[in-house]
Amino acid sequence: MNATHRLVRLVRHPAGLPTADDFALARVPVPRPEAGQVLVRNTHFLVFPGLRTLIGGETRDVPLPPLCPGDTLFGPAIGEVVDGPLEKGRLVLHLQGWRDYATPAAAECRPLEGTLPDPVAHLAQGSAAYGALTRLTEVHEGDTVFVTGAAGAVGTLAGQIARLLGAARVVGSTGSPDKARRLKRELGYDATVLRGAGPIGRQLAEAAPDGIDVVLDTVGGEQLTAAVHAANRGARFALVGALDGQLSPDRAGGSAPAVLDTFQLLTRGITIAGYNGTDHPDVEAEWEARFGDWLRTGDIQFPYTPLRGIERAPQALPALIAGRSFGAAIVEL
User: Fold this and answer.
1) pLDDT digits (tens, 9 = 90+) for 293-331
2) Cα 79 from chain centroid?
3) Name one GO molecular function term (predicted).
4) C-alpha to C-alpha distance for 179 and 119, rounded to whole angstroms
5) Are residues 22 and 165 in the same domain?
6) Is the pTM value of this prediction over 0.90?
7) Which of 77, 3, 108 is nearest to 332 (CA)?
């Protein structure tokens, strides 16, 4: 084992959206596990947009700690046990990504038991989409579902899940014509709404001429505003993200205001709820079992964009924010 390893640290709080210069790759001694800790050699870690909030300083009501200059970034990671109380060579899931070697507590490691055919699929962000669509909106046979941010880590799975739950028509929004084509060609979206290609409301009326029954919103902003106007009576909205605020150069990641027509909410009997996984502790295991079955039968795909090598990791979050990923963004070590 090498005496040193590499990790990614926050250099400074970004002025606006983060750039690669706000992060630094450092080489430090390989950590020694203390009592109860496991030494893990990481193989993959997830780049998640919530880091924008953690490095921006607006972390009120956020379950994860803020990141300050000098701190090592973190996030979901998969790695192989090298030393400690767990079986050597076993793959585990933990939260100390952004480094070659990690020392999570054994209790913070989840051994991977082969529930999913590909271990990397444990980094998929489908649990929130599945939980929102089954617990909050309860997709019915024949529903028209609108997914905002459909080309992201959540959205690429959400459209497929909605279809598997019985949706008759699935519409997604994205900011890239190429991604729009991929959503329809590869993931079964029936239609797309393209940001910057004209008023969202007009596009949505064309994409869903019979209205929308279910909205899974990862963005907020004008897309959420337009969805309210396109909603059918009794439509159900689930909010699982706030990318419009998190990825705004004018905000620090902890706010995402949107204009909603409350008259429409009232007269159409529309319900809106935010999804929090901690409120639904049974969802994770249920999702993973169904996800594994769907992967094995080929009924679902797990799209992700790999970034190979930790030396490229300082560019990973800015690249994600710039929209250069399709599906999840995963660094391969």
Assistant:
1) 999 999 999 999 999 999 999 999 999 999 999 999 999
2) 20
3) oxidoreductase activity, acting on the CH-CH group of donors, NAD or NADP as acceptor
4) 26
5) no
6) yes
7) 77
Q: Which domain holds residue 25?
A: 4-124+302-332
Same domain, 141 and 266: yes
Q: How far is CA 27 from CA 9, 44, 108, in A?
A: 10, 18, 25
* Same domain as 116, residue 130: no
Give residue-wise pLDDT tens across range 132-147: 999 999 999 999 999 9
DSSP letters spanning 67-132: --TTPBP-B-EEEEEEESSSPTT-EEEESB-SBSEE--BGGG-EE--SSSSSGGGGG--HHHHHHI
Residues 274 and 137 reside in one and the same domain = yes
Distance separating alpha carbons of residues 328 and 141, to the nearest angstrom: 28
* Residue keyed to tokens 């055919």: 117
CATH number at 167 reads 3.40.50.720
Q: Is residue 226 part of a domain?
A: yes
**According to the model, what pLDDT value does residue 270 have?**
98
